[in-house]
Amino acid sequence: MDIHYIIKGIVIGLMASIPLGPIGVLIIQKTLQKGRLAGFISGFGAAVADTLFASIAILGLGFVINFIQAQEFYFRLIGSVFLVFVGLRIFFTNTIKQFRKSQTPGKRGMLGDFLAIFFLTLSNPIAVIFFGAMFAGASVFSDANSTKVSLFLMLGVLLGGAIWWYALSTLVNVFRKKFRLKQMFWINKISGIIIAVLGFLVFLSCFEPVKSFLQ
What we know:
Blueprint: H1 3-17, H2 22-34, H3 36-58, H4 62-70, H5 72-91, H6 95-101, H7 107-122, H8 127-137, H9 147-176, H10 181-205, H11 208-214
Helix pairs in contact: 1-9, 2-3, 2-7, 2-9, 2-10, 3-7, 3-8, 3-9, 5-10
């Protein structure tokens, strides 16, 4: 049955989502600040972007992959600057004011959360190579000539990401209810610092002399 392609896609989607990089930190911060729904919608933005990368890998769009590899420096540079900007913005946010606003979140805020994480995830298109390696390891490339199989795999990746972000936002939301505004203030500051530092490290990694020094 073709259902096993969906299962393989789910596993790959989970493996792409579970490592808690800056995207994970941002989604935890969104959940603590605005609640489970905001956290899940933000995470779903990452899942949709990952599915787009997976579709490029599974459909064998070699010219896109070659372009991404050729322009890796610029993608990483733009992504790193955006991460630093987001981290600093979180650090300097008035947590108490934001928390009170989040008691009645609007649709525009949710859409903004989705788009912010979607585009931030897209700023790291090297993920295409990760998905290519995962699909190769799962021995599905030979079957992916079938449109149906490709769609099942992409659906699985989307479901895998959605499952992980729903589980994470739900778990974080349980602890959110135990936090006081003072604790959320410091969580905001720490999250902002972590994200900004990660962005700065990515920025440094774009330059060969720094890479050589770090190695």
